Amino acid sequence: MNTILIVEDEPDILELLEYTLGKEYEVIGCLDTTRVQDILDQETIDLILMDRNLPNVEGSVFIQELRSQGYLHNVIYLTAKDADENVIEGFERGADDYITKPFNIDILKARIKSVINRTQKQHDVIKVRDIMYTSSQKIFEIDGEIVPLTHLEHDLLLEFLKNIDILLSRDILLENVWEDSMDVKPKTVNVAIKRLKEKIDPTGEKEYIKAVRGEGYIFHKGSIEC
User: Fold this and answer.
1) Rounded CA gap, 204 and 222, in Å?
2) Whether residues 11 and 75 fall in one domain
3) Are residues 81 and 172 in the same domain?
4) For the segment 70-125, what is each residue's pLDDT rounded down to a tens digit?
């Protein structure tokens, strides 16, 4: 079940939203933004329903700051700010949709469903060259064939696919992929990548991952010319 985080400072409206949306979604309600970042770090949130007129910070300013920190959650503003310039400003500050008060609850539900469905379809499959990753199943396929990977190899390849054509140092890979990176030696990265390459490119012809001496590794979107 998808989870919606509602940030609304009017208790009556928050209670209505929690009750109505709670029939179809897991719902977490907040009267201000104090706990929002902690919740996003601890829970899997599929959509944020955000008021703009909040007591401690303007809602769209808060979302804009979250975006700058790398939080890319779906956001629908549900607000009394209904002037054209307010709506435009809302989209400029990270809105996936913008709904003004007073609102029709059925229309709100339909637009929530639309945003969640659209983004799930966009993010469920990652395709780079002939590698396809289906996140809902955590499966990698190459040329239509499922590639059996260990948990570590799965996380390592996914890290590369999220950082195409970006040089990743061994330290960065250790930090992002290994759970106990402080206890792992950099040479461990070399061994893990060697084993991963043997599984995804046993003949070495495709050259997905290239080592950069003394720097780290790059996953190339295109083939490498020798």
Assistant:
1) 14
2) yes
3) no
4) 788 899 999 999 999 999 999 999 999 999 999 999 999 999 999 988 876 655 67
